[in-house]
């Protein structure tokens, strides 16, 4: 049982959705999300919550901002109406800013995958892959026709598995956090056949 203390804080997830985390904290959080299904589900919930807040702000704007402000001011003295009108206005403005930041951060999610060709030639490491993009691995399986099908996995520098994929068709991986990785190809019997180095850079 994973300890709850090891999971991401609710405030961290909210800040992440609103684009309020530093690059370093973002990377750490995304690394955890890659490995933790529980927190991925919680992120989905947080994203829905942020979307609801955005919708509420939009409705508020439609009802209040477009109303003829001059008429309201004419009915009540300016000093009396000003603080009451300002607070919801600030909240709405803040929500709009948050939504804009959130969209800015997440508009890169459907980015096209970045293709990486891993060749069988020793020492021919591919150039660095960009962080934040799905990766399309094209594996050169020359000389590995025996014992199909193979299984593939991606491990990070400390040997932790971060992705697995069936070998044969080009493998589409989720975006990886910056760092050094190894792509390994196994025989169905579990024997390691080939290992490729992969670097992901921001
Ligand atoms: Zn977690």
State the distance separating the first and last CA atoms.
Answer: 33 Å
Contiguous runs where pLDDT drops below 50 for at least 5 residues: 70-78
In DSSP terms (H or I, runs of 4 or more residues), the helix count works out at 5
Helix percentage? 40-55%
Can you list the ligands bound to this structure? zinc ion
Write out the strand line-up for the largest beta sheet, numbering strands in chain order: 2-8-7-4-5
Fold and architecture overview:
This protein is α/β, with parallel strands linked by helices and 202 residues long. Helices cover 43% and strands 22% of the residues. The protein folds into 2 domains: 4-106, no CATH class; 114-201, Immunoglobulin-like (Sandwich). It has 5 helices and 8 strands. The strands form 2 sheets. The protein has a 5-stranded mixed β-sheet with strand order 2-8-7-4-5, with no helix packed on it. A 3-stranded mixed β-sheet has the order 1-3-6, with no helix packed on it. The longest helix is centred in the first third of the chain and has 29 residues, at 37-65. The protein is elongated and about 70 Å long. Mean pLDDT is 75; it is low at 70-78. Zinc ion binds next to α3.
